Structures are given as C-alpha cells and as structure tokens.
Amino acid sequence: MYKNILYGLFFTVTIILLSFLYVLNKSIPSNFSQIIYLINKKYLFLSLCTLFFFHTFDNLRIFIIARTIGLNYPFLYGYIITLINSFGATVTPYFLGGELLLFYTLKRVGGEIYQIMYIATLKCVAGIFFYVIFLPFTIHSILNNPKEAKEIISLLFIIIFITTILFTLWKLFFKKGSEFINKEILRSVKYTISKYFTLCQDFFKQKKKVFLIIFIFTLFMYNSLLLTGVFLVKAFNEKAFIKKIFLAQLPLFYAIFMSPTPGGSGIGEIGALSIFDNFIGADFLGIFAILWRIITQYLSAIIGGVLFLMLIMKDAYKGNV
C-alpha cells in the first residue's frame, strides 16, 4: 500500500507542478503584491470556514455510520480520518485512495474489514444520490455556458486519453506476475463478504432514517465544498453573484471527479481558467485558479499527508506496522 501511495504522490506532484506552470504561463499577474492588497480577507476567511464545514459534515456522516454498527472512536479522531482520506483521494486515480486509507484509519480503532466496507459503501451511495440530484443543475449550467462546457469536456477527454497511454506504458514496463492466493485467504474473504452483505441488508431494512441523515450530511458536505469556491471568487470579485458562481462550478466539479488523474489534478487547474474567466480579471485568473485548487483540494491533502505520516511513525514505534 505504502509503495503505491508514494508512486501516486510522485505522479500527482508532477502533474500539479506542470499544470501550475501552464496556468501561470497563460495568465500571470504583472504585480504579485497587488493580490495581497486587493483580495477581500473576509471572504477568504469564509472560504476557509466552509472548507472546515466540508470536513465536519464528512466527519459526522462517518461517525454516525460507525456508531450504528458499534464502532466507537473519539469525534476529533474523525477529523484525522477525513483529512487522511483527502490525502489518499488526492494521490490516487479516481479518488480511490480515500477509501483505501479509510481502512487504515478505522482499523486503528478496532474496525473490522466488513464494517469498513459497509461505511465506504454508504458513503458512496449517498454521494451518488448527490450527483443524481445536482445533474439537472449541471446540465442547465452547461447549456447556459456552452463555450466553457466544451472546453471542460474536451480537456477531460484529452486527459483520459493521455492517462490511458501512460497507464498502458506503465503496465508494459512494470508488469507484475500473478500472486498465489491460498485457501485460508479465500475463506477469510468469503466470511468478510458474507458479514458485509448481512450488515448492509439489515441497515437498509431497519435504519432508513439514519441513511436519510447521512444523505443530508452528504448534501451539506458537497455544498460546503462548492461554497468554498464561491467565497473565494467573492474574495477577488465582491460583485459576483453567488448563484452564478455556484452553478458555474458544477461542470468542472463533475469533470474533476470523473478524471482518472489523482485528485483530478490537471483538469482542475486548467479547467478553472475557463470556468472562472467570467468572474476573475485576466491579470489574476492564473493565481486564482491555483489558489482555488490549493484551498479546495491540496490544503486538506497536505494536512492529511502530514497526519498520515505521523500515524505511520507512531504505529511503527509501537510495532503495529
């Protein structure tokens, strides 16, 4: 696991640096010091606050699911879970590492594999409901801004094409042999899957109200992330309308989560140039796009990465790794 995370981290940092250089090359301010004086500190603070709310709602939904199945841990530890999940999601394709590190953080507090699979499933189902509900608003935004939508869609296909080629080359040069799976492992997997399906079946039969609460927290969570971008735009352009900024982000939001690159890197930075062009002046657009990605994605990932390293060192010291 750790080796794959290191590979992903290297790959992610490379894409981020290249995309940042591209963004700055396309739009670089003549005077960086102007940004410090012109940016509205109140809206910048609100942007950071809504980022905190994003992690709070993510923490709440995991915490509630865990409590319903008898998995107890301190609420503050939940922030460590969600931040480390952000790190994992940022350094792995299709955000899969977020669920991978969920196993690590919950195993540390006594979680069984089938319980963690169950928590990850409910998170995923609630997230799908969000995408379904907001799909009409996204289509509305695409129809109202066809030029920006075309650029985002084209960029997404280009990134998928390049990523496919790179992944194919990686598999050719670093081809691994198949690993032997013994009967003991197969029995363990069968038992875990059986417990997992039983738990899921019981939950959806008996705890529909709990799922409704989780779904509401998921809506609040993703809306907080979108509002993080809204307030950041207002920090650069106080006259921009909140509703327009909110809706304009949706196509890029979907494209980022559909991107095969770790954390949607590349498409997030470059796509932001098209999406926020109507709200941010040309002189500050490049800096804004980078700052938007740092606050909405990479700040949490950096903090999560540091926390993950601290836990690894702590577990290694105790002999648990």
UniProtKB/TrEMBL annotation:
Name of the protein in its database record: Integral membrane protein
Spans traversing the lipid bilayer: 6-24, 44-64, 76-104, 116-140, 152-173, 210-235, 298-317
InterPro entries: L-PG_synthase/AglD
Keywords, comma-separated and alphabetical: Cell membrane, Membrane, Transmembrane, Transmembrane helix
Pfam families the UniProt entry points to: LPG_synthase_TM (PF03706)
Subcellular locations according to the entry: Cell membrane
Superkingdom, taxonomy of origin: Bacteria
Any one cellular-component term (Gene Ontology): plasma membrane
PANTHER family xref list: INTEGRAL MEMBRANE PROTEIN, PHOSPHATIDYLGLYCEROL LYSYLTRANSFERASE
Keyword Methyltransferase: no
Membrane topology: Multi-pass membrane protein
